[in-house]
Amino acid sequence: MTPERALDRPTACEDNPIFQQRDQTALRGALTILGMHRSGTSVLAGTLRAAGVFFGDVLDGALAPNPKGLQEAPSVLFMHEDLLNKNDGSWHSPPVELEWHLLHYAVRDLFIESRRSEALWGFKDPRTLITLDGWIEAIPDLKMVGIFRHPAEVAMSLHRRNGFDIDKCFEIWHAYNTRLETVYTQQSFPMVEFVNDQKLMDSSLDKLLGTLGLQPSLTERFYDSDIPQNTGPGIDVPSKCDALYRRLQDFSL
Q: What is the pTM (predicted TM-score) of this model?
């Protein structure tokens, strides 16, 4: 983005007091979830909501292809979709370069402004991995948490849901998770692996909440192992995906 473009855009809410660390004993500010589609981002968002993070109105199970809802703010989802489209890309074909336009800046800043009164708020959309630079520009101290899933399970899930061929599914997995690895190496943050094991997921999510200074809900467990999963599919994983997956495992809690 050129300096001239930067001057043209609406200013971000840099003076917003919720972006200041006013109390060193409590997590405050904005938080985003980083992870690709079909990788447990909704589970992580639901867990954070149950622990007290404000997400506002989100797409629920009645409007989304997920029994417990996508946990995504419609305004962010639709803005991201348009942003990718305007850059000749899509969620399943991320553009090489991304240029934000005035409309996208406006939607972003209005969304941030609408959270002004919340001490700790979050948002989730897998496309954030592609659009992240624009959010960090507005919220320099944006907090992040990450989640990833075995490439074969994601590939089969995308194949069954979207009808993509398996090779394309693996390419999408690699594109998103390469970005996840890059962001993590620049600024480490809590990350967990999404697996189909209730006890292990509960333990991992509780540990993640602990690193954020949050307490898990005693009455609500968002993860549900009874929801159909694409577990253990017997398909070969490309070597580059397998190597990346193992590196992400090294980063996880």
A: 0.84
